[in-house]
Amino acid sequence: MTPSDSMPAPLDAEYFRTRLLDWFDHHGRSQLPWQQERTPYRVWVSEIMLQQTQVATVIDYFQRFMARFPDVESLAAAELDEVLHLWTGLGYYARARNLHRAARCVVEAYGGHFPVENVEALSALPGIGRSTAGAIIAQATGQRAPILDGNVKRVLSRLHGVGGWPGRPAVERRLWQLAEHYTPHWRCADFTQAMMDMGATLCTRRRPACLLCPFVDDCVAHRAGEETRYPESKPKKTTPLRHTLMLMLIDEEGRVLLEQRPASGLWGGLWGLPQFDDETQLRDWLDSHAPGSRFGERRQPFVHAFTHFRLEITPLTAHLSRGSAGVAEGQHWYDPLQPASLGLAAPVKALLDAQTTLL
């Protein structure tokens, strides 16, 4: 049985829109930084930052980003290192790399003007999918463009009792049908924001505030007392645990050697500590790159979680006996007391911050 076979009919579209927008007018968010001076560029940056990240976390990052890159031209002209530096701590760094690539595409292919005439053209840019493109168009231009981000999936799944994981094609198709049904041709920016606000502030993943919801009497999940059943989670797989050694090679001035990671892959383009599979490999690297260095302490391992695996990191220190070793291309002596503007992987930043307290 497909989701559309078992689901009740959608609510009357006009009824849904009226109730939702009335709720939004009284309780919705309208003072967020990216809601002021709305342009396709500002809305785009905010939408990318908000992927997988809470609004409260994004606000400060967005404001710093706008202060440094007020328009798409300045972002396109920047070095990736600076973009990644401003993204440090926000996570999911592929977003920052795609943001930079897309900015250059907009400048080179569209003369600095975002192709907001249709979803297809906008979603062809790096890092922009169908829902993000719809949100940018609706928020920045007021044109009609349905969205289906995580918050909206949760609202629609619960309201209509749509079972199954939204990543399944049949479930996703059903949710897009509902999003299309309800999206109006008027007040499109407010409607889009209202849908996101509903999921973020009322129809939350845990402990939804059902009694404050304008659809409390219409919601299939609430009537059944099964709010947290929807949407169903992705089928779980065992999360593998990987291991790595991170070397903190420290010179007499307290500087730490960093290496830039390859543009693709784990922490792509960010600066990090030299990594090794085992201690023998690490010692061989030291003999080759920093002969005469003194091997230091082996610090407490810790685990950093990614989407598909967990990484156990064991930091080890070594000290140069005198001076600093020469640096090759893609290496940098980093002074924790006078840090350079480099994009750092979160666990590397934590280790460098901890090193500062020891100096």
Automatic annotation (TrEMBL):
Molecular function per GO: purine-specific mismatch base pair DNA N-glycosylase activity
Co-factor binding details: Binds 1 [4Fe-4S] cluster.
Reaction it catalyzes: Hydrolyzes free adenine bases from 7,8-dihydro-8-oxoguanine:adenine mismatched double-stranded DNA, leaving an apurinic site
Signal peptide positions (record): none
SMART domains: ENDO3c (SM00478)
Sorted UniProt keywords: 4Fe-4S, DNA damage, DNA repair, Glycosidase, Hydrolase, Iron, Iron-sulfur, Metal-binding
InterPro entries attached to this UniProt entry: A/G_AdeGlyc_MutY (IPR005760), DNA_glycosylase (IPR011257), Endouclease-III_FeS-bd_BS (IPR004035), HhH-GPD_domain (IPR003265), HhH_base_excis_C (IPR023170), MIG/MutY (IPR044298), MutY_C (IPR029119), NUDIX_hydrolase-like_dom_sf (IPR015797)
Domain HhH-GPD: start-end pairs: 49-201
Needed cofactors: [4Fe-4S] cluster
Role of this protein: Adenine glycosylase active on G-A mispairs. MutY also corrects error-prone DNA synthesis past GO lesions which are due to the oxidatively damaged form of guanine: 7,8-dihydro-8-oxoguanine (8-oxo-dGTP).
Family to which the UniProt record says this protein belongs: Belongs to the Nth/MutY family.
Protein name in UniProt: Adenine DNA glycosylase
